[in-house]
Write a structure and sequence with these properties.
- This protein is mostly beta strands and 451 residues long.
- It folds into four domains: 10-115, Immunoglobulin-like; 122-222, Immunoglobulin-like; 232-355, Sandwich (Immunoglobulin-like); 359-445, Immunoglobulin-like, CATH 2.60.40.
- Helix content is 2%, strand content 52%.
- The chain contains one helix and 38 strands.
- The strands form ten sheets. Strands 4-5-11-10-7-8 form a six-stranded mixed beta sheet, with no helix packed on it.
- The protein is elongated.
- The N and C termini lie far apart (103 Å).
Length: 451
């Protein structure tokens, strides 16, 4: 008889041998297909001492004939479309199936069954390590016990194969959505664990319970409430209505850590503004203080990186939840951290932006004709802190003077349109980066003929 390779696919708890166009499906819902073993055996796991497996040909086969079930020296003829196999070992199924026309196909399959153990799984959550105290660390140690470790089976090559459990661990955590703090369901799927397995998972920032369910057991374990000591903070920094996201890759650091300096500069490059400016700061935090009588403290810290090194510029303390407006006068890269300290652990988040270097340029012509395009004489600028402009006609008469860089000359004098022609300006300004500007030049006032 020619050997054929059988491939198992898992779909709706069915194992299908595609090469032979024959599928093997558990009759009892309590029996599930586990996997195809390394030797090609189809392994089923269930509650009973034995399993009944249905043999079903696909549409290209008209029936199963002359089926024999072999286990060691024992051979039994199979009648009907089902076979019953006991636990702990594999059976060889030899069969013939009717193909197209009068052609008869031969096939072989290895079927294994293991009775699962009905024991409720448990989990132990440890916040301390034997070497170092991990109470404020990012990871939590989880140790499993009472998992289903359903003995073993002997495969077609005579090898003993252990069945390891697959478990799903679920719990709740927090996540930030802008200034809001929302619950975040967490799920950890671990394959191949057994009793005394240890796993490190992201430590939750909220009080939660751990739920554990293994693949083979119907039991679900629910732990006692885990009380987190990690504070969790979120902040919103806005400039002119634009929100700048904060970085949380290095939470809980005592000092400002933002990856490498180059990484930090790359991250803040998308947020560049003209100074001076006022930023709006708003925070939201879950303190997780160890006692109700303990009040957490919150600190905003401001750092300027224009010289290439982190320098602590100044610190501010805001202990309320209101929006705080903070003026930013200096140019360069700015980092702002929010630290929440509950007396046991700290949570630090950081965000950043850039204030551009100064720039000032005057136009050579403007057209105050009311078409809302180039109607005012004003400079193109970035990061100008001080500014004053004087405009004169060709006779030296002062036509306009202003210290507001956001407002330009509209081409009028005492309510009347100034004549078209050449005018002269003098500009004195100072940038936030300390650059002094003294500009002098001519500008043409142009209107349409009908104006």
């Amino acid at each position: 008889m020619k050997k054929r390779r059988f491939v198992a696919n898992i779909f709706a708890a069915m194992a299908t041998l595609a090469a032979s166009a024959v599928s093997f499906n558990p009759v009892d819902n309590s029996t599930t297909f586990y996997k195809e073993g390394s030797s090609g055996e189809l392994v089923f796991v269930g509650d009973a001492d034995s399993a009944t497996i249905n043999i079903a040909p696909d549409q290209t086969e008209s029936g199963i004939n002359n089926a024999m079930l072999v286990s060691g020296k024992d051979t039994a003829k199979v009648t009907g479309a089902t076979v019953t196999i006991g636990t702990g070992k594999c059976y060889t199924l030899l069969y013939k199936s009717d193909g197209d026309g009068e052609k008869e196909n031969s096939g072989k399959a290895y079927l294994c069954y293991v009775k699962k153990t009905a024991v409720a799984p448990t989990v132990k959550v440890c916040d301390y390590d034997t070497i170092s105290n991990l109470v404020c660390g990012p990871d939590l140690k989880v140790k499993f016990s009472n998992l289903v470790y359903a003995n073993s089976y002997v495969n077609s090559r005579g090898e003993t194969v252990d069945i390891q459990d697959n478990i799903i661990l679920t719990y709740e955590d927090y996540e930030a959505d802008g200034i809001n703090i929302n619950d975040k369901p967490m799920e950890v799927v671990v394959n191949g664990v057994n009793n005394d397995s240890t796993l490190f998972i992201p430590k939750p920032k909220r009080h939660t319970v751990f739920k554990l369910k293994d693949k083979f057991s119907q039991y679900e374990y629910v732990s006692d409430t885990f009380r987190s000591l990690l504070p969790f903070s979120t902040a919103q920094l806005t400039v002119d209505g634009e929100a700048i996201p904060h970085n949380t890759e290095k939470r809980g650091e005592d000092n400002l850590v933002f990856g490498t300096l180059e990484d930090a500069k790359t991250n803040v490059g998308n947020y560049m503004y003209s100074g001076p400016l006022t930023i709006n700061l708003e925070r939201n935090s879950v303190d997780n203080t160890p006692a109700d009588t303990v009040d957490a403290s919150y600190e905003w810290s401001f750092f300027n990186d224009s010289t290439g090194t982190f320098r602590n510029r100044y610190n501010k303390f805001y202990n309320d939840m209101t929006v705080n407006q903070v003026p930013i006068q200096n140019y360069g890269t700015h980092f702002i951290t929010l630290t929440c300290d509950n007396g046991v652990c700290k949570d630090t988040i950081v965000t950043g932006f850039k204030v551009k270097t100064s720039y000032l340029l005057m136009p050579t012509v403007f057209t105050p004709n009311g078409d809302s395009y180039n109607d005012e004489l004003r400079p193109t600028y970035t990061s100008i802190n001080e500014y004053e402009i004087w405009i004169y006609n060709t006779m030296g008469k002062e036509m306009y003077n202003s210290k507001d860089i956001t407002v330009g000359w509209d081409g009028t004098y005492k309510g009347n349109d100034a004549p078209i022609g050449a005018y002269y300006y003098v500009v004195k300004a100072k940038g936030v980066d300390g650059t002094d500007y003294k500009l002098k030049g001519a500008v043409s006032l142009v209107r349409n003929a009908d104006n």
